[in-house]
Design goal:
This protein has 383 residues and is of the alpha+beta class. It has 3 domains: 117 residues, Acyl-CoA dehydrogenase/oxidase, N-terminal domain (Butyryl-Coa Dehydrogenase, subunit A, domain 1, Orthogonal Bundle); 109 residues, Butyryl-CoA Dehydrogenase, subunit A, domain 2 (Beta Barrel), CATH 2.40.110.10; 145 residues, Butyryl-CoA Dehydrogenase, subunit A, domain 3 (Up-down Bundle). The chain is built from 12 helices and 10 strands. The strands form 3 sheets. A 4-stranded mixed sheet has the order 1-4-5-8. It has a 4-stranded antiparallel sheet with strand order 2-3-7-6, covered by helices on one side. It has a two-stranded antiparallel sheet with strand order 9-10. α4 runs antiparallel to α8, α5 packs antiparallel against α6 and α9 packs antiparallel against α12. The radius of gyration is 21 Å and the shape is globular. The relative contact order is 0.12. The protein binds flavin-adenine dinucleotide. Flavin-adenine dinucleotide (FAD) binds next to β1, β3 and α12.
Length: 383
């Protein structure tokens, strides 16, 4: 494995840096965080850059990047973009919705959805979690009952990222309660304007406040059989694969955030003086910074290795779980360390660091909690 970026990947990173600095970092992120506002305008600009469809083949309107290049692009977004919520919304859209349609959709579904999902005109939502099923996701209650040439879906999804603004829902429902996880769960592509489907309240949260979240309620919503993604009963496998991508893709942006935090910590440690010395000269500070650097390196290598496996079409479930646990915990610790190193300056909203800390807290929860990732890793060890 050679993880030295290619000339194209270096150019991609430079292009994203330029795009983010010129188009996305317009100085409004703090205000939008305070008002919990999503910017459709910035999403549109991301669409023009092809970010919502990075891995989608060009014949379906995407950028056609391999997994590792897409991961490098997301790392660059995390490194340069001031709006962590926007990057999170993009990641949820791409890795847990667009990838499954690209991988498992039939030709008609790909042609119908992928161009709009790639150019920013459509926003997708992954609906798995329900009020009574979080970590135990496959104990879901949402039912899809066969009715003539289609299905009637009833139930509700919660904590759905992009829910209040979504155009397309990738939802999982029970089609055969007796089979459950083993062939009884099916993935459906449901247009937001389907009769009987409502995106209800916007949820207020601690961080990622520029990324909208809500509930989806299905009341005997009728969808044609052509709404099934892949084949009936393949929902658990679909979900597992989309989580492999999400646990690498979204967390690549967190690797970028760790690098940004490290830069802030180093700059502050080199410029702030107390007791007649730069604070970076005190070992309590410099060792904390050194540990951040080690975490960054390990986080990046885990992420690249998992992305490389995705690029090769190899199974990446174990690697994705290890990446997810390590990167999320490294991000939270790095954000805490940076606030501590910057003292009150880091605690102030205008520093932007406290926002990264608030944003980071959810990273050990979404895409499966740290505890669940450790359960998955233990299972791979035969435990
Ligand atoms: C910002 C954010 C965005 C999200 N976006 C989406 C989305 O787009 N779509 C979607 O479907 N969902 C989404 N979710 C929901 C997310 O997937 C769930 O929150 C997550 O799976 C955990 O479920 P829960 O919150 O119900 O916690 P619970 O499952 O109730 O867990 C509570 C605690 O118990 C622990 N626990 C549970 N079972 C075990 C066990 N067997 N062993 C050890 N510990 C255990 C958990 O680790 C956790 O610490 C999002 C969540 C957040 C915070």
């Amino acid at each position: 494995m050679d993880f030295n970026p290619t000339r194209e990947q270096k150019e991609l990173k430079r292009t994203i840096k330029r795009f983010v600095q010129e188009q996305l970092n317009d100085g409004s992120a703090l205000a939008r965080d305070e008002s919990q506002t999503f910017s459709r305008e910035l999403w549109r600009k991301c669409g023009e850059m092809g970010l919502p469809g990075l891995v989608v083949p060009t014949k379906y309107g995407g950028a056609g990047l391999d997994a590792l290049s897409a991961i490098i692009a997301f790392e660059a977004l995390g490194l340069y973009c001031n709006d962590g919520g926007l990057v999170f919304s993009l990641g949820a859209h791409l890795f847990s919705c667009v990838v499954p349609i690209w991988k498992s959709g039939n030709e008609e579904q790909r042609r119908r959805y992928l161009p709009g999902l790639s150019d920013g005109s459509l926003i997708a939502v992954n609906g798995m979690t329900e009020p009574s099923s979080g970590s135990d996701a496959f104990s879901m209650k949402m039912r899809a009952v066969r009715d003539g040439a289609g299905y009637r879906i009833t139930g509700s999804k919660t904590f759905s990222t992009n829910g209040p603004i979504g155009d397309l829902y990738v939802v999982f429902a029970v089609t055969d309660p007796d089979k459950g996880y083993h062939g009884g769960i099916t993935t459906f592509l449901v247009d937001a304007d389907t009769k009987g489907v409502t995106a209800t309240r916007s949820m207020s949260k601690m961080g990622l406040r520029t990324s909208p979240m809500g509930e989806l309620v299905f009341d005997e919503a009728y969808v044609p059989a052509s709404a099934v993604l892949g084949v009936e009963g393949a929902g658990s496998a679909e979900f597992t694969r989309s989580m492999d991508w999400e646990r690498v893709g979204i967390f690549a942006s967190h690797v970028g955030q760790i690098e940004r935090l490290l830069k802030r910590a180093v700059d502050h440690a080199r410029s702030r003086s107390q007791f007649g010395n730069k604070i970076g000269k005190y070992q309590a500070i410099s060792h904390r910074v050194a540990d951040m650097r080690i975490k960054l390196e390990a986080a990046r290598l885990l992420t690249y290795r998992a992305a490389w496996r995705l690029s090769q079409g190899r199974n990446a479930t174990l690697e994705a779980s290890m990446t997810k646990v390590f990167v999320s915990e490294a991000l939270i610790q790095s954000a805490l360390d940076t606030v501590q190193i910057m003292g009150a300056y880091g605690y102030m909203s205008e520093s932007g660091v406290e926002r990264v800390l608030r944003d980071s807290v959810a990273s050990t929860i979404y895409s499966g909690t740290s505890e669940i990732q450790r359960n998955i890793i233990a299972r791979w060890l035969g435990l």
